[in-house]
Amino acid sequence: MSFLRSLLFSTPLIALATIILGTLSLLASLVDRTGRTQHRLARVWGRVLLGVSFIRVRTEGLEKLDRSATYVFVANHASYMDIPALLANVPFEFRFFAKKGLYKIPFLGSHLNRAGHIPVDRSSARASLKSMSEGARIVAQRGISVLLFPEGGRCPEGLRAFKEGAAYIAIKAGVPVVPMAIFGMRRLLPMGSIHIRSGEVVLRVGDPIPTAGIGLDGRSSLNERLYQEVSQLLTGSAAKLVG
């Protein structure tokens, strides 16, 4: 029954919402080049996708954040539904770092490009560094937060080692980096599956980690700390969800 609901109800409505809001985002970009309107529409998209999928998100720790501040957010990544969950529940305007290949997908690609999200080119170390430098510039000069999945993509199980891009951007921009953990989404929509299950997930926000005074040579240590923080948040989320 759950699979039929997913196939006949949730999936068609997700596709419809993506087409409608993607079109509105594209039209909005013609008059608003800041990306703010597109971000608001993306938040609506996230809420709609969670709603039609019957996924509830319990958030913890948002009170630790200063709503007037700029951050580099990092989170684990286990499911396609992580992105709607973050958009719908993190009350900041932020930009994603997205794989370059996603920009070729209809509607999604046009939204990512026109909304000012940053493509990551992993074809070479030089291209990747250029992407990270652009992200740092956006954070420092425009005062807009960014969000990265430092595992480099969805992980089918556990928590993969983090790439250093988030630490590099936070240090270079001189802003705090915020570890976050999404627990339970892999169970509702695993990699390679089209069966979206209903249920509750936990989004936990850790303490912001200041980067003032840290040089780029300290990015490995900061990256390791981020990994440990996200790992601990996941452990705490598991206990909360079970409890």
Spatially, the strands of the biggest sheet line up as 1-7-6-2-5-3-4
Shape verdict: globular
Q: Estimate what percentage of residues fall within beta strands.
A: 15-25%
* Total beta strands: 7
The end-to-end distance, rounded to whole angstroms, is 27 Å
Q: How would you classify the helix and strand content by structural class? A: alpha/beta
Describe what this molecule looks like in 3D.
This protein has 243 residues and is of the alpha/beta class. The protein has one domain: Glycerol-3-phosphate (1)-acyltransferase (3-Layer(aba) Sandwich). 47% of the residues lie in helices and 15% in strands. The chain has 8 helices and 7 strands. The chain has a 7-stranded mixed beta sheet, sandwiched between helices. Helix 4 links the parallel strand 3 (94-99) and strand 4. Helix 2 (36-52) crosses helix 3 (82-89). The chain is globular. The model has no long low-confidence stretch (mean pLDDT 90).
Topology readout:
Blueprint: H1 2-28, H2 36-52, E1 55-60, E2 72-75, H3 82-89, E3 94-99, H4 108-114, E4 118-120, H5 125-142, E5 145-148, H6 165-173, E6 177-183, H7 185-188, E7 199-205, H8 219-242
Parallel strand pairs: 1-7, 2-5, 2-6, 3-4, 3-5
Antiparallel strand pairs: 6-7
What labels describe this entry?
243 residues; alpha/beta; Glycerol-3-phosphate (1)-acyltransferase; seven-stranded mixed sheet; 47% helix; globular
Task: Give a summary of the structure in a few sentences.
The chain is of the alpha/beta class. Helices cover 47% and strands 15% of the residues. The chain has one domain: 3-Layer(aba) Sandwich (Glycerol-3-phosphate (1)-acyltransferase).
